[in-house]
Amino acid sequence: MRLREDSLAYALQQAAGMVAAVIDGGNLTDAFERLLASHPGWPDAVRGAVRDLAWTTLREYGRGDAVLAQLVHTPPPVEIRALLLVALQRLWQKPEQAHTVVDQAVEAAVASMPGLKGMVNGVLRNALRRQGQWQEWIEADPGARHACPPWWQARLRAAHPQDWQAVLEAGRQRPPMALRVNPRRSTVADALAELEAAGASARVLENGALLLAQPRAVARLPGYAEGRLSVQDAGAQWAARLLQAEAGMRVLDACAAPGGKTAHVLEGADVDLLALELDPLRAGRIERNLARLGLAATVRVADCRRLESWWDGRPFERILADVPCSASGVVRRHPDIKWLRRDTDIARFAAQQAEILDALWRVLAPGGTMLYVTCSVFDQENAGQIARFCARHADAERLPIDGRTELQLLPNAEHDGFYFARLRKAP
After folding, report:
1. Which domains are present in the chain?
2. Are residues 200 and 179 in contact, defined by beta-carbon separation less than 8 angstroms?
3. Half-sphere exposure (CA, 13 Å, Cβ side) for 80?
4. pLDDT tens-digit profile of 368-419?
5. What are the record's GO terms for cellular component (predicted)?
6. What's the CA gap between 154 and 149, in Å, rounded?
7. Annotated binding-site residue numbers
8. The whole model's pTM is what?
9. Residue 113's CB: how many other CB atoms inside 10 A?
10. To bridge 317 with a disulfide, which of 7, 202, 368, 371 should be the other Cys (CB 3.0-4.6 Å)?
11. Residues annotated in a binding site for S-adenosyl-L-methionine
């Protein structure tokens, strides 16, 4: 049975495929990109509907399982489990569409596994009859209550005892959309006027980021194709400002893909910038982003820890170390992270970060500054990491950020979660 692309059944089926891939241990973004590659003619409406269903289901993952545990006693195939999770999430979102959702979920089952259409129909109708008990079932499961694994909650409580619940709640919301103006091709005032004329309201934040009142398709952003604007989270836009690169400086962006921070540095100053990236495909994204913005840098595929493979012996006056991390501050954009990560992964990330910091410190010029950045909200990767680094390196001095020793941004309605620390090497 072939489903119509403009039907809810089709969107449920395609979203369930992505959720199933994550349940099997796959990456959500990779699954979506494969799906787009196999459906190049998808209209924006279909692409948006499929993405919204998958991302929303995974932001709330745990709640659906708590309900299914009370209704399904024989585990179904992963494809059907995923379809049920997506359908339940749609019922939470659109309770007024209950009949349609059940009907379309059954249609999706017929197209995927016709022998299990009766199971899907029975489970969803039983779920609706017992809808008054859903919250009770969810509250009884700590992971379901906050849509987050218990170990993750424990780390957040320890790191942010006053804010951990707000951080968890932010992780369940749709993320804000912020823009960065390329000062070489436009101004903030002109960009705001263009957006307003296109029906997109925005306001300027403290660091110059433009926060859209409502997210908007990139293709509908005036000035994007011409390189006047870029999409970049407002929190991430602090990096270039805190790095304080000046014209003529030699600058290293050590873990550069996809290139947003690289471009931001180049937009602000005429510097000699080397961008390193371990993944060749992601390195290509850096080059494409720079080309769109009319910027130039040297982009190399290399592991920044292996100095012999890329360093020419000349020190850098500024280093941006936006290191690999748990990505715990950006889970609303990448909701599979909460469920794919394990508690033991944090120590592995911390060890990798320490290796990167120690290697990059060797190529930083005396008197130079290194900006350490993560999109994490876990102390082991942030404040703890920098404290351990400073204990190992007597020539490291922590430079203040607005009177503080570090800047920890927690996800909220304006930005994602980021950590920044500025380190100066003794002359």
Report:
1. 8-147 (1.10.940.10), 177-232 (3.30.70.1170), 233-425 (3.40.50.150)
2. no
3. 21
4. 999 999 999 999 999 999 999 999 999 999 999 999 999 999 999 999 999 9
5. cytoplasm
6. 9
7. 255-261, 277, 303, 322
8. 0.94
9. 16
10. 368
11. 255-261, 277, 303, 322
